[in-house]
Amino acid sequence: MSTAYKPTDYPGVRYREHPTRRRGARPDRYFVIRYAYAGKMHEEALGWASDGYNAEQASQVRGQLRQNQKLGRGPCTLAKMRAEADIARREAEEASKAKDELPATFNALADAYMAWAKGNKKDHASDERRLRLHIRPVLGPLALGKIRPAQIEALKDGLVAKKLAPASVVHCVVLVHMVFSHGRRIHGQAFADLVGENPTTGVKLPKVRNGRTRHLKKPEVEKLLAQARRTDPLLHNIIMLCLYTGLRRGEVERMQAMDVDTEAQVLHVRDAKSGDSDTVDLPDFLLPLLTRLTDGLDPGALVFPSWRTGGELKSISVRFKRLVDSVKFNKGVTDKRHMVTFHTLRHTYISRLVIQGVDLRTVQEMARHRSFAMTLRYAHLAPGGKRRAANRQEQPGSNVVPLLAGIRRRS
Fold first, then answer.
1. Greater confidence, 373 or 63?
2. If you ran DSSP here, which 8-state letter would residue 51 be given?
3. Lower CB density within 10 Å: C or N end of the chain?
4. CATH topology of domain 106-195
5. Parallel/antiparallel/unpaired status of strands 6-7 and 13-23
6. pLDDT at 95
7. Is the pLDDT assigned to residue 353 strictly greater than 50?
8. Which of 305, 287, 187, 183 lies closest to 244, judged by CA?
C-alpha cells in the first residue's frame, strides 16, 4: 500500500490512494488534514472516500477547527471533535431509548410511582386508596401527553361534586402533582418533552378550613371516661394516655413496652409525625397505669396489641366513634370541625395547656408541633392574655390627668 500523500486543491488537505481498492473509476482515497495548534503541527486522518469523505469535507472540518481555535470555544482537534460527537450520539440514543420506555398512560405512570412509594413513603396506603377511588377512574386511561390543566380541573370539579371534603380534594390534586414530578425525576428530559409543564400547575385548590374548634370540657371528659370504663376498658386506658400526653392515634398503635421509661418519667414516641423519634413527659398520675400495662412484657411487645392478630390495633377510631355515639356528644352536630373524634383528645390536651396559662413556646414543645404557627391556632384560648397585656403598660405620671372638662367638638 502506497503511503505517499498527495496535495489537494484545498490547503492543509492531503490524500493517499489504495493500491487495489477502487471507488468508481478511481482508486479509493484516504484523506488527512494538517493544521497548527498550541505551537505544534497536527496531522489527523479523516477517512476513506469509500466511507463518504472527500477533499471538500476535509477542508470544511479543518476550517471549523481553526475557527474554534481563534474563538477559544468548541473542540480544537479532530480527536476532540470526534469524542464530542460520540458523546452527543450516545446521549441521543439514550434519550431515544428513554422515550421508548416512557409510560404511555397515567395508569402506567401511577404504577411506577406506587412501586417507588411503597419503599419510600410511610403513608403509601393513603396514596394507593386515593388513586384507586378518586384519580384512576378519571385520569387512568388517558395518554400522558393529553393530560393538561383542563383535565385536572375536571378531576377537581368531579371530586367536589362527589362532596369530598376540601382537604381530600387538595390531597388528590397534590398526589397527581407528585406522580408527574416522579415521572420527570425518573425519565428526565424525554418525559418533560412529552408532558410539558406539570399539568397541576396553576390549578386553584379549594380553601381548607378543617381546624378543630371543639375540645372536651371537664364534665365531658369525666362522662367519656366513665362510659369507657364500663364498656371498653382497653379504650379507657388509651383515652387516658392521649388526654394527658397528646399522643396521636398512630403513635399509640406503634407504642412498645421499651418506649415507656417510668424511671425518667418520659415516653419515647416511635416514628413521630415529624419523622424523628420524640419524647413526651409523663404526669405522675399516669405512671401506675403505664407500669401496670407494661409489667411482664418483652421490650419489643406492643402495649396495645390487637387480640385477634397480635399486631397493631387498627380498630381504635371505630371503637372511639361507638363510644362517642353512646354518650351523644355529636348529636345534632353537622360541622365536622365541631365533631368529637379521636383527634379531639389531642386537641383537648393542647387546649387545656393553653387555658391553664402555659406559655405558647412550652406548649409547642409539649405538643411536638413542627412550627409555632400550629401552636398559635390555640392562642385565643389563653386566659385574658390581651387584657393582662393592656394593663401591664406603664401608667402616666401623677401630674398627668385626663382632660375631661372644656372638651369641645370641632364644627
1. 63
2. G
3. C
4. DNA polymerase; domain 1 (1.10.150)
5. antiparallel
6. 57
7. yes
8. 287
pLDDT at 82: 87
Side-chain-side CA neighbours of 337 within 13 Å: the count stands at 9
Q: Report the pLDDT value the prediction gives residue 151, as an integer from 0 to 100.
A: 94
What is the DSSP secondary-structure string of 278-305?
EEEEPPGGGHHHHHHHHTT--TTSBSSB
Q: Which residue has the higher pLDDT, 386 or 353?
A: 353
Q: Are 143 and 103 in contact (CB under 8 A)?
A: no
Summarize pLDDT for 211-268 with one digit per residue, the tens. 666 889 999 999 999 999 999 999 999 999 999 999 999 999 999 999 999 899 999 9
Return the closest-CA partner of residue 269 out of 291, 286, 287, 246.
Answer: 246
The CA-based diameter of the chain, rounded to the nearest angstrom, is 126
* Secondary structure (3-state) at 390: helix
pLDDT digits (tens, 9 = 90+) for 291-322: 999 999 999 999 999 888 888 888 899 999 99
Lowest average pLDDT, out of 100-114, 178-192, 371-385, goes to: 371-385
Answer yes or no: are the C-beta atoms of 29 and 15 closer than 8 Å: yes
Q: What is the pLDDT of residue 121?
A: 84
The topology (CATH level 3) of 218-384 is hpI Integrase; Chain A (1.10.443)
Residue 246, Ramachandran bin (φ over 0: left; ψ between -120 and 50: alpha; else beta): left
Residues 83-99, buried b or exposed e (16+ Cβ, 10 A)?
Answer: eeeeeeeeeeeeeeeee
Which element (helix H / strand E) includes 47? Answer: strand 40-48
For CATH 3.30.160, list the domain ranges present in the chain. Answer: 6-99
Residue range(s) occupied by CATH 1.10.150 in the chain: 106-195
Q: Which of 277, 256, 251, 245 is CA-nearest to residue 346?
A: 245
Q: State phi, psi for 46 to the nearest 5 degrees.
A: -95, -50
Look at residue 273 and tell me whether its pLDDT is greater than 90. Answer: no
The position carrying cell 394507593 is 128
Q: Does the domain at residues 6-99 carry the CATH identifier 3.30.160?
A: yes
What the block records as the C-alpha cell of 396 is 402616666
Residues 16, 66: contact at Cβ < 8 Å?
no
359 Cβ contact partners less than 8 Å away, ≥ 6 residues apart: none
CA triple 366-369-372, angle to 5 deg: 105
Residues 156-168 have pLDDT tens digits of 999 999 888 888 8
Strand segments, DSSP code E, in 132-265 are 260-261
Sheet hosting strand 266-269, strand order edge to edge: 260-261, 266-269, 278-281
